[in-house]
Amino acid sequence: MATWWFLVVGAVFTGYAVLDGFDLGAGAVHLLLRKEESRRIALNAIGPVWDGNEVWLVIGGGTLFAGFPVVYGTVFSAFYVPFMLFLVALIFRAISIEFRSKEPMPWWRSMWDWSYSVASVVIALSLGVVLGNLIQGLPIGADREFQGSWLTFLNPYALLVGATTAALFAQHGAVYLLLKTENRIFARLTLIVRQTLRVFVALYLVLSVATLWHVPHMLTVFRAQPWLFAVPLLTLGLVLSIGWLIRRRRYFAAFLCSGSIAALLLLTVAAGLFPVLVRSTLNPAWNLTIYNSASSSKSLGIMLTIAAIGIPLVATYTGFVFWVFRGKVRLDEASY
Amino acid sequence: MLPRLLGVFVSAVLLPQLANQLGWYSAEVGRQPWVVYGLLRTSDALSKAVTAGQVWFSLILFTLVYALLFALFLYLLNKKIQHGPDEEELSEAHHLSPASKRNNPVISHDAPGISAAALRNVSDL
Fold it and tell me: What's a GO biological-process term for it (chain B) (predicted)?
């Protein structure tokens, strides 16, 4: 039962990374678009979908709270200060999108452009930093409480994972914007896609080496089950082919490719950690696993039923929204 | 009579906000010392890893953020009120002919306060 719930939590966070990944990425490259009209088109490209994509983060928090309350409590308490700053970034990103078009003054619009873009980068970075910390493990005591300062949050390896996440999202978002635009902004974006891709590939390679060297415990599961090496190898293959797809102007395939990379990277982490959710750096016996931190079987059973109904529902309406707003962006009276 | 009544209604904008905040406040304060009534005490639910200083930090941070949001909200709301309804919105509501739309006093931006003609229009809605 706990394994099923682990899969649900994993699937929801993967859905979040793939979906919100591209609109956070669109925010990250926003300031590279110089013209007022380009920025409006870029905002309206994510306009109908960005808040729906963020719902997956809410579901992710909810599934963690319902299924693994100990993990939820420990991790959110450990990183209380970073999570508060993360929330402020989420608030500023949302109000920037909404408030930007309310006044015509250039300083007003530029202020919200900056707030939107900086908040998007901060969110993408901190998501990666959380992931980096979970890969390394945290100083968790016998009482399942975090023992340490929240400043341990910002360590070199976690920051590297954060930067890689932000670069992947930026590239994912830039390809999404390519799909939604035409003419001059499209031409500008083809350059931006190449730049972001170069940064991502470089960081991805550095991160892969750093992971093998710095967190060898991630390899234990892979050594026991060698067929699992197919996942990181497939990721590497996709990372190398994305540039080829972009040169061949197969942008939709490139978009699916960067989404799959985000999903496969998370799958690699999940496979490497399973059944541990939060590794204790103090004593392996104090690890938070899917067994010692799960809710009762009865709770998990009820929640699985709800998730089995709710998640397909959210996936369906998400798909429907994408279908309704398919095609290139055209600005009109109702645009941001 | 009618303008005065409408004046009273203006202040009713605040009532749902008040009901929302006070309702939440009563539920949270009324439940103490429990965080889950009858099951978990607030003092037992407290995280050991979060210090009082961190809680102060988040409280002050969110007070500042919400104060800023409130100021922006008032500024933009005031702007929207000063601007008044768009011609299109009015014509949709009234099915006015283009000729009568031009003479509609509600859309004249320099009218001080709410004119009697505007009130008649509002009461038609």
Answer: aerobic electron transport chain
